[in-house]
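Technical note accompanying the year-one report. For the benefit of new consortium partners, we illustrate the data format agreed upon in the data management plan: each record pairs a sequence with a structure-token string. No post-processing was applied to the example shown here.
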Amino acid sequence: MKFFINVIVPLALADSFTYEVNENEFHYLKIGMRVAVPFGKSKVYTALVIQKHNNPPLTYEAKEIQEIIDSQPIVNEKQIAHWQWLAEYYMCSLGEVYRNAVPSALLLESETIVVYKPKNEVLISDLSDDEFLLYEAFQSQAVLKIEEIISILNKKNIFPIIQSLLQKEIIVLNEEMIETYKPKLIKYVRLHSDFDAPEKLKDLLEMLSRSEKQRTLVMKFFQMKTLDKKPIPVKTLLEEADVSNTVLKGLVTKDIFVEYTLAEDRVVFNEVENQEITLSDFQQIAFDQINESFEKFDVTLLKGITGSGKTEIYIRLIEQFLKQEKQVLYLLPEIALTTQLVQRLTKHFGNQVAVFHSKYSSNERVEVWHRVNQNSEKAKIVIGARSSVFLPFSNLGFIVVDEEHEPSFKQQDPAPRFHARDAAIVLAKMHDAKVLLGSATPSLESYYNAYQNKFGLVTLEKRFGNVKLPEIVLVDLKEKQKRKEMKGHFSIDLLDEINETLSRGEQVILFQNRRGYSPVLECLTCGHVPQCPSCDVSLTYHKYQEHLRCHYCGYTMAKPLKCHVCHSVDITTKGFGTEQIEIELKELFLNRNIARMDQDTMRGKYAFEKLIDSFKNLEIDILVGTQMLAKGLDFDNVTLVGILNADNALHFPDFRAHERAFQMFLQVAGRAGRKDKEGKVMMQTYNPYHNIIQQVTTNDYATMFKEQMYERLNFKYPPFYRLIRLQLKHVDYQKLKEGSFWLYNYLSNQLEMPVLGPEEPSINRIRNQYIRIILIKIPINVPLNKTKNDIRKSIKSFEAIGAYRSIKTIISVDFY
């Protein structure tokens, strides 16, 4: 009898692949273990076992695996089932889900190794200069990597030389698996067993009577051992004794000390005493209602206004599930939010908290992965961004999706283009767990689900400590400019409020949802605006670096001193971003500390932590930022929030623009007056009578919901219709145009539902690829799987046409 396994490889391939194993390997292997498999002519990939059976493949001969990597599964069967749902629902391959889900350090990479193995004696006279250099290198090292050969020859194009040496049978190529994860090893020291007994101490000190430093080190070791029975790290011992590593090496050589290493977690939160959470009367009512709701519904929506104390309720609920020995997942939309939340949760739960997001190194993420897989005490609560839904939970009991309305929960690239909120709800169903969606401004879809009794709904309409909601004041920029009551981009009213707030020792947050100094640099003589050569978008001017940058492909160029077209030196900026606001503030408030929070300043691993700690410790007076500021940050001393240009958010060509503007303004406003001091929000706008702006000033979510739902129903948008967006890309504009029309016509004939397009998006070329969009609107009562199958067949037919095969098609389900 033959034995086979089905595996998935981390490639965009829809199918699993069958490999042959021997009987011992078959019985040893478990679902969810990794194996190294040959794939294609010479590549080796880390594959994941998803099935064991005795059926040989019908269309090809099964290859044998190269090696088994794991001794225990790193992925469980519920997780694989969740991945299969993601691949099916979001119309991508299981391989793409696997590649995106698993930390890169667990995906061992195939690396080309060049081995010196001549069949016959090498004739030096037959070798070129470069070949001879390599030949000499092989005399001292029989195995070289490609990077090492590039370094030896000091040239990039080394493959013709390798090819020549292959033909002369001097070298062979191997593919080797390189494991990228390395555990963090800490060096410790202990006394040799010969001197372990207390009576031996006198003899030991006599031995070292001539070496004062070695004697000092031994005495310090005994002192530390007496105070603490834990293993003594080498680094700590040397620092305490104030001696060099050479002194320790001498004691190791004399067999007095023994060095050893232990693996240690990279991220550890200190144990603390459990701080009791006391809920207010309103919080307690909401807490009880959530528990009642969980008896009827698996998913409950908590609509609590900003500053109402939702986090305290989450902590009390987490306590309940931890008592049941369950794992908890706490999902956040932005890495910036994890800083404050980790501080709050570790104060309460200590080292039971683990963090998983992209700012952590690959090795740190692997350690969290293993802890969750082992159901470790150190990962009972996982705080993470959207990728944490992929973790190998085995005993999940509760998921919190905080700020559930945030569009950052939807992954745009690469596949799977999933929505973390929806993926979390499905994951919870597989584990029979409960989900709490929390937001002051819920997404229309979630609120509609609660309205339809699919989700439970609990509301919290009072701020913690009965603190009043901030007063929202509208500043009409048209009027202010007419009366010349503006200073730069600030109205005199806003500047007066900032001065008054700072004089009281309180802090200010200013919101402008555009980074950089200015989005446009324009020649006043001929009107030329520098454009990105690879994207159809103007370059944004960044004053600190004195360069222009494309925010889509990263292209940069130095700021021109004169116009590239007419050579005029009369160049000016149009529009403004956070950088320009920061510079203006530094000129207006000379003796104040001003900081900026946007994608440009938050690049380092600890950038968020440093900025948030500085602001919380009152080291910063005014904080300027983009939408990063709008998401759940909690600062006691902020009493004034300024929104510098409210109109930008209202005029995007997007059916969600008004919903998102309402959410963003209310979230930013919610940063003001969160404790004893009443807050104030100054909103600068050219259109103070716009419906959304008026609804923000009165915190009228219900009216906004009704108006937006009426429009969504009329124009066939979610939640009444599902959206699938097809994005087609190609470098040839004409070919893309023809191909997109062919696919549009084919889909229109196949599907009995609205198919829109093919349209050019507002930015129709990115990274030298032209873009066309086809939008499919699926009525809520039409079977989704059948429609998806029809779309897949249409795309296969499209890709089967030779002329259109090079056009890339990207599918986004539930497009955001």
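Partners are asked to follow this layout when depositing records. The chain is about 35% helix and 25% strand.
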